[in-house]
Amino acid sequence: MKILLTDGGLKHTLAALRYLSFKGHEVSVLGNNRACSRFSRYVNRYICYNPQSNFGIEHYCSVLLEEIRKHKYDLLIPIGSWSVECVSKYAEQINHYTKTIVADNKKIRMALNKRLSHDFVASIGVPVPTTFFPQKIEEIESFSAKVKYPVVIKAIMETGGSIVDYAYDQSDLQNKYNLMCRENSFSTDNLPMLQEYIDGTGWGFFALYQNGVCKQVFMHRRIREFPPSGGFSCCAESVFNEELKYYGLKILDHLKWHGIVMVEFRRRRADNKFFFLELNPKFWGSLELALASGANFPDLIARIAAGEESGYSETYNVGLRFHWPLDGDIKHAFKKPAHAGSIIRDCLNPSVKSNIYFADPMPVIIQFAQMLVMLFK
Questions:
Q1: For a pLDDT cut of 70, what percent of the chain falls above it?
Q2: Nearest 5 degrees, angle CA 323-CA 285-CA 227?
Q3: 3-state DSSP call for residue 172?
Q4: Which end of the chain is more exposed for a tag (fewer CB within 10 A), N or C?
Q5: 276-279: which pairs have CB atoms within 8 A and are 24 or more residues apart?
Q6: Bridge partners (DSSP) listed for residue 289
Q7: pLDDT score recorded for residue 161
């Protein structure tokens, strides 16, 4: 199958590219000119374009339409949140030229809006942290007297990047909240939310749905994150947990979901209770753990797009540990030196997998150079 992936700069685009190629697909990638995927031995064709350029979503859609019209792809798989939103918004035009499997734009917009997704999940009885949504910047003074500390300050819209901070007292909250609003030009319609901090570990439920029917699930537990205070996974382990599966399926079945999706939870250390955090209607950064565990979501999308019948599966290898040394784990060690020993052991342990893939060396070299720049700039 001839497939186009978006967002070549993301590490999970590179993972999807490799694993689709392993299955015999001809894969091209669209992304910025410094992306690791551009230099992969598995990429058939690379199209230089930054999806989040200043040209806007309409221009991005026109670029996608021109590419799929000219090169006659069988399938378009959007990877990042902005690409997913674009493809869902212009699905009617895109589907004239190729297939794509994404939820309708209304559901995508709901999922990307943390207030809407929080309210929906709470309404169906899934546990959520205590959360506040200020309507005016001036309200932060009164909210600072209500919340429990530490408290999480988080952007209300999924931006493709992590806009999050933590406040430890009233003065700290007011200062950090106002700073976040200024730095990101947040105003009345998109002010950051305030959320109870759940002391525990991050867990993820991942799924692929076809017209409201679940086809594949996968679950993982975060071991290390970057930044260490809370961010993306730089070390995680495949798990299977019935309660996590129950909550994940409950949310997505109610939505009658279609396409790929991640549901993020946090498990409280004190009582092992799960709390819903976010609904992300896109591929996740730790996708390569699922792929290495035998849950090949990109290839399953391709098989569904080709008309292949597929039943429900929750089969994958449980207990596989995976880390991303060049995409957060080494930087984690610099921020938290006490964890350096465990990171070194993971690097030396052959049973712990990583995205350092010597059969495809150029992306590894580029990732190493990019990490050095980030560490020493």
A1: 98
A2: 70
A3: helix
A4: C
A5: 276/118, 276/121, 276/126, 276/127, 276/128, 276/247, 276/251, 277/129, 277/195, 277/202, 278/114, 278/117, 278/158, 279/111, 279/117, 279/121, 279/251
A6: none
A7: 63
Query: Angle, nearest 10°, between helix axes 81-89 and 105-112?
Result: 150
Q: Hey, what amino acid is at 106?
A: K
pLDDT of res. 149: 96
Q: What is the three-class DSSP state of 314?
A: coil
If you ran DSSP here, which 8-state letter would residue 258 be given?
-
- Residues of the chain scoring pLDDT < 70: 51-54, 159-161, 377
Residues 331 and 372: beta-carbon distance below 8 Å:
no
DSSP 99: B
> What does the DSSP assignment read for 122-138?
HHTT-----EE--SSGG
DSSP string, 224-235: EEESTTS-EEEE
Q: What's the pLDDT score for residue 374?
A: 76
Classify strands 232-239 and 213-226 as parallel, antiparallel or unpaired: antiparallel
DSSP state for residue 47 in the 8-state scheme: E
**What is d(CA 366, CA 109) in angstroms, rounded to the nearest whole number?**
34
The residue type of 227 is P
Domains of the chain: 2-100 (3.40.50.20), 130-196 (3.30.1490.20), 200-376 (3.30.470.20)
Q: Is the pTM of this model over 0.90?
A: yes
Helix intervals (H) in the chain: 11-22, 57-71, 81-89, 91-94, 105-112, 114-123, 140-143, 170-184, 242-255, 287-292, 297-305, 330-335, 340-348, 361-376
